[in-house]
Every structure is written in C-alpha cells, then in structure tokens.
Amino acid sequence: MPKTQIIVAPDLSILVEKAAARIAARVSQSDTPVAVCLTGGSTPKPVYDRLAREPYNSSLPWDKIHWFWGDDRFVPIEDERSNAGMAIKALLRETPVPPDNIHPIPTEGNSLGDASRIYQEELKSFYGQNQLDPMDPLFDIVLMGLGADGHTASLFPGTSTLTETDRWVLGVEEAGLEPFVPRITLTFPVMASTKEMLFLVSGQGKQEILSRVLAGENFPATSAYAEGDLIWLVDRKAAPQEFPEGVTTLGSKE
Ligand code: 6PG
Questions:
Q1: Contact predicate 195/140, CB 8 Å
Q2: How many Å from the N-terminal Cα to the C-terminal Cα in the chain?
Q3: Is residue 82 within 6 Å of ligand 1 at its C-beta?
Q4: What is the Å distance from ligand 1's center to 12 Cα?
Q5: CA 245 / ligand 1 centre spacing (Å)
Q6: Distance CA 58, CA 71 (A)
Q7: 76: preceding bond cis by omega (within 30 degrees)
Q8: Ligand 1 proximity of 187 Cβ (cutoff 6 Å)
Q9: C-alpha span between 148 and 32 (Å, rounded)
Q10: Residue 77 Cα, ligand 1 centroid: separation in angstroms?
C-alpha cells in the first residue's frame, strides 16, 4: 500500500546517505529497464556525488537505468545553471552509464514550446503508451526539491502549470525565483506516475515553508502526489519542530 512518510535525518550528510540508498534500492529492484527522474537545485548535488562513488559506482545496474529530468532551466547543457549539466558532471559522466540512457530535456536548438513537445514524445516513447496507467508507473523514483516560495520542479505559485492534467511537459516563460530564465517542467500527473517520489529538503531556510506545506497550506509542493510512496527526506534543520528524528508516517493512501 502506498505511504506518505517524513524521514528526519540528523544532518545533511545522513540525508545524503539515506537518499543514495533509497535510489539504489529502487533501481536495483527490477530486471527490466528502470527510470529515474532527477531534479535540480543544491540539495541533490551531494546525493549525485555520492552515487558516483562506491559501493554504487561498481554495483548499480547502470545498463538498465534511464535518467530523465523533472525540470530544467532553458540554457545549454554546459551552462552552470543547467540541471542536466549538473547531474551529468556530478554523477553520469563518472559512472558507466550508456549515453543512450541519458535523456536530458532538449534545451538547445528548439523553441520552448517545441522542446516541451519533443520531451513529452520522448517520455511517451519510453513509456510505450500515450496515457498514464496508475497501475504501471512511468518512473521508479522521482526526486523533488522544495523552493522557499513553495515551488517544486518548475511549478511556481499562481501559474496555470499547477492544474495542467493533459500535457506531460510545459514551457515556463517566467520563473518565480532565481535564476530568472525560462524553464521546462513536467506536470504533476506525470511526476506522480512513480513508484516513489522522494523530496529532499535541507537547511534552516526551508523550515518555515516545509512546515506550511506539510500543514497543507496552498503551495505548489502541497499539490505533489505519487501513485506510489511519497517520502519527505529532510534534515533536522529543515524539519518542523514537532517532528522527532526518525520516521513519521503521515497517513496512507489506498
Ligand atoms: C530547480 C529545481 C527546483 C529546486 C528547488 C529546491 O531547477 O531549481 O528543480 O525546483 O528543486 O528550488 O532547490 P534547493 O535544493 O537548491 O533548495
């Protein structure tokens, strides 16, 4: 049965260990190709660094893992603001990943609209269907972050992207937060098509917004859901005061 949990790690280094272990467990569970959806921001970078090292570097089934992104900034992959570029540098070029298994959002040579449509087709082609089946999730694990304004992926407060249920991928002309560049984002139903959604939240600066999101206040991240497990992996500094260290189960979804 899918579950929603908050896991409070004592500090960032333990959050990183736990995140890497969860990702490794998810991608090692299947004999068929698996799909990981990565996120940008500063919190996942040490997790990507960790996965590039042992024991993961020589033990993960790299041939069968496909890497996608939940959002990206509309800049070339070499640009330091590129989410794909960050993950490639930290993780993918340090490991024996077949190049065909890397599926960055195409941020060069296309308009924002065309790039969104191309990525939507790429996701559908990998999935093998045009409609998402809740019993057959697209992703094995989707990583998410939480912005100070409550955004997640590139789904910003007050935008029409939040209620999109038809398109899988959208262009975002104006990001609500730095860096102020156009972006491309997957929509909520597509990111929800996962066996596990793993939010990574770290630092004192996230404590207030995390408390408000977990209390159900109206922010983009509050609307995130998963067909499978929804896990909030947070460090002590980001955790709301009333959550003790360890695991808190918020409730279950049939
Ligand atoms: C991006 C992200 C974004 C990020 C949050 C949290 O492209 O910036 O995908 O949604 O996850 O802003 O970022 P931090 O981990 O840096 O706090």
A1: yes
A2: 6
A3: no
A4: 16
A5: 24
A6: 28
A7: no
A8: no
A9: 37
A10: 17
Atom nearest to 177 CA in ligand 1: 12
Give me ligand 1 centre to Cα 254, in Å. Answer: 30
Taking only the tens place, the pLDDT of each residue in 27-77 is 998 889 999 999 999 999 999 999 999 999 999 999 999 999 999 999 999
Give buried/exposed letters for 149-164 (b at 16+ CB in 10 A, else e): ebbbbbbbeebebbeb
Distance 132 CA to ligand 1 centre (A): 26
Report the run of H or E that residue 113 belongs to, with start and end: helix 112-127
Reported as a pLDDT band with limits 50, 70 and 90, residue 250 is: low
Side-chain-facing half-sphere of 222: CA atoms under 13 Å = 14
The answer to whether 138 touches 190, Cβ cutoff 8 Å, is: yes
Distance CA 75, CA 135 (A): 35
Task: Output the residue whose Cα is nearest ligand 1's atom 11.
Answer: 145
pTM for the full predicted model = 0.96
Structure tokens at 104: 């960055």
